[in-house]
Amino acid sequence: MIGVTSLLAKVTRYAVSLLVVVVLTFALPRAMPGDPVMNIIGDDVWVSPAMLDAIRADIGLDRPVAEQFASHLWSLLNFDLGYSYHLNAPVADLLVARMGWTLLFAGVAIVAGAAIGILAGALAGWRPETAKSRAATLAALAVSCTPPYFLALLFLSLFAFRLGLFPFKGLYDVATPGSIAHHLFLPVLVLTLFAAARNTLIMRGSVVQEKESLYALYARAKGLSDRAVLFGHVLKNASLPIITQIALDFGFIFSGALFVEIVFSLNGLGTLIYDAVLGRDYPLLQGAFLLIAVMVICANLAADIVYLLVDPRIRRQEQ
Amino acid sequence: MTSPNRWGIGLLVVFVVLALFPQALAPYGPKERSMPYLDPSADHLLGTDDIGNDILTELIYSARISLFVGFASASIATAIGLSIGLAAGYCRGAVDEVLMGATDVVLIIPKIPLIIVLAAFLRPGVGLLIMVLGLLGWESIARVVRAKTLQVRETGFVMSARCMGFSPFRIMGSEILPNIMHVVAPKFMLATAAAMISEASLSFLGLGDPTMKSWGMMISFAFLEGGFIREMWWWYLPPGICITLCVIVVAAIGFSFEVEGTEARIE
Q: Which end of chain B is more exposed for a tag (fewer CB within 10 A), N or C?
């Protein structure tokens, strides 16, 4: 493989990021004010004194920190993210049961948002002075400046409450694809708009730069139509920054998805985290943070590999 | 200055005035109460909420926290990003590797989930929000500052300052810094916009300061206390519009700084 060295450097950084996240989840309950055991199991929960002693012995707060960290790491490697005393279930099970829905609708939104954003941004950047381009840019700016949950609330009150076009809560009435699509339409729409707005702005800037380059001038000089220059030549180069951006945005869109879920009462990761915040269920919050961090890092790694595959210039540089 | 920019600055001034002198503009005091769930009327232009507070008064008083959190945490983020970017760009070599490596490491950690975890452990408060948002928002500033510093450090006036034996701190502070401010200013505004959105999001989750209302918290209360079920749009719409408008204005001013910066460079 060519380009392996730069990929390796990136992988090292991702590994360090992961380590930082793991150290955070280890250190936070121990360093925060209050009894570390209560910090580890969560506030506002009743546990019998005997149980508390058992937990205390199990965590081993009297052992050296290195030993504690090693056992923390070992349990993480075994997919043991701790136990939620609020919901009486292992955190890993709770998260896995809920993350499917979140990934489904965030995934659809990310893909659709990328497609719409690339197209709208390309057209807006190609002729930035036209009224249509200005309107598209302004709309994208407005959407990306709105807190995601507020946009979700607006759509909910307008389309579900006022117009009654869509159900206002839940994933489905009966578990058929039609019912699920009907319930998920608004949340996916909100999140797609959000992703599309961010991509539009970046794509627009990228096209504005790329269209001034010599190869675009040459393409025009050889008599290609505007459309052929944009879609045949400029689009390819201009979409490169989008790949990195989508990966970096993954965490952002995913966080947005959590808020959209709360507004639409979807039984995904977002509502789980919301309940954990309200109940101070620390193990669940930490597990969710770790899970999301791992997903974001994986998304970035995937983007780097894709980038390497689609851009021959990077491969050639390293030869 | 372009015309949208003039509009933007005008609006921002309005918001800042609201934040600085709420008592002069609000129709009621922050603690005055009347009947709950009133419809908009001449007495209460935006009605009242679930415990009888005048919503317009709340809206005006909330401007302070939203703006303060935004600008304060952006200041912290800019200070950190500026120091790291300057050091990395000026020293280059190993220092650059380490600092930019650290920047990449921080960049990838998902911010909102981390802030949720931190804010849940520590008791909510304005100071905490500012610290956390500031400490986690500096990476893009550091990158831009580093890139610009790498350019500026090769210019003649920096060279001559070095030949005259000025200390690196003096060179970074009074030779390089003034010449990179035009890239820092737009980033500062964008960091403010991002911090305001984060503040609104965290307040919506109930992780804001419960003793001081912000726009995000108003929406959160409207959501939890029946403002949506009762379709009281005069309750939840104004704070949302205020956040969005304020963020757009701040971001637009940032963008126009950016454009002016590039134009100045071309000239």
A: C
